[in-house]
Amino acid sequence: MTNHRIALIPGDGIGREVTPAACAVLSGIGARHGITFDYDEFDWSCARYRAQGAMMPENGLDQISGHDAIFLGAVGEVGVPDHVSLWGLLIPIRRRFNQYVNLRPIKVFEGVDSPVRGARSGEVDLVVVRENVEGEYSEIGGRSGQGTEAEMAVQEAVFTRAGVRRIAEYALRLAERRGGSVTSATKSNGIVHTMPFWDEIVAECAAGHPGVSLTSEHIDALCAKLVLNPARFDVLLASNLFGDILSDLTAAIAGGIGIAPAGNINPEREFPSMFEPVHGSAPDIAGKGLANPLGAIWTAAMLLDHLGHTEAAAEVESAMRGVLAEARVRTPDLGGSATTSEFTKAVLEFAGA
Ligand code: NAD
Ligand code: IPM
Ligand code: MN
């Protein structure tokens, strides 16, 4: 038997609805592979912020630094400014635990109609490798002249050689293992300092991986090409902001953002990695039991894989795939009428767990 301690942060909105789905699948399918989980649940959320003035306790990060992994539902609530809630919880976790890779795979599954004509199952299979701790998301900057006509805000993007190199190397090695290619998102025509720097370092790294073909595409053109022909892409390497946007776009290509999983990975394993679906707290559907738990379930598979349980992870993915292919049970975002828990039950039944 192997036991893992997971720090569970359901968060807000549908985060609280999809987290139980992920746990049910982890425990249900894990048990068959001799894996058990202990969950330590934390109420860190906008509700906590409203009650206590902070998203998490001051020593919150110390409380979860010894866990094998972190699972987070979603964060954000109408009424609490998003920069307050996210910089009070999600972003500090990514940074303190040096989770510099945000891994966001996507596939068009059999039984799910892509809104993109010609995006067929089996053909669209790509991974966004997003830089996750620097870039356009930075604390450097400020505001001045508040309340005057001269008011201004400045936000500095931070790109370091070491930061770009390690994410590029990660993407190149991943492409090597997949026998695929890397497309690097740039915007060197408009953003004249950081993006040419990004391109230079990515090209230098690619020279050390002669088996991987590297293409650089401006982010605007890349978005259009992804919609027109998603099947031709494999690994998409992107800065923090570009990777964020690309991952909602690729999720939509696969049928909707409720499907997409993510791992915030610390490849050196000095710290726990964090797993969370790509979607947010979806206040428009929260509390109705309508959230698609697929993103959270697929994320649970990524967590299993990260902890070395490749077979259990593959079983979760094949159960998801099986339920979708049968096309009987699906949530409203995919055109069905199943609830979050009905879909989760179908996945567990399919797996025989
Ligand atoms: P969102 O992902 O929450 O929702 C966008 C749209 O997709 C909504 O119409 C929603 O109903 C739908 N949707 C999302 N997940 C779904 C699911 N599992 N099943 C069915 N439909 C789903 O994005 P948003 O509206 O931009 O953000 C809402 C809040 O979430 C904000 O506070 C935002 O800051 C936060 N957010 C948090 C995270 C995170 O914690 N990782 C990620 C993104 C957004
Ligand atoms: C995501 C989210 C976050 C991000 C927000 C909520 C800060 O959109 O994980 O994709 O931009 O990283
Ligand atoms: Mn996002």
Annotation field: number of helices: 12
- The portion of residues assigned to helices is 25-40%
Could you tell me the strand content as a percent range?
Answer: 15-25%
Structural class: alpha/beta
Low-confidence stretches: none
Anisotropy-based shape: globular
Which tags fit this structure?
353 residues; globular; 12 helices; two-stranded antiparallel ribbon; alpha/beta; binds manganese (II) ion
Give your account of this protein's structure.
It is a single chain. By secondary structure, this protein is of the alpha/beta class. It has helices at residues 15-32, 46-52, 60-64, 82-87, 90-96, 161-178, 194-207, 219-228, 240-253, 294-306, 310-326, 340-350; strands at 2-11, 35-41, 69-74, 101-107, 125-131, 141-144, 152-155, 181-186, 213-218, 235-238, 263-265, 273-275. It has a 10-stranded mixed sheet, with helices on both faces. Strand 8 (181-186), helix 7 (194-207) and strand 9 form a beta-alpha-beta unit. Helix 1 (15-32) crosses helix 10, helix 6 crosses helix 7 (194-207) and helix 10 (294-306) packs antiparallel against helix 11. The protein binds nicotinamide-adenine-dinucleotide (NAD), 3-isopropylmalic acid and manganese (II) ion. Manganese (II) ion binds next to helix 9.
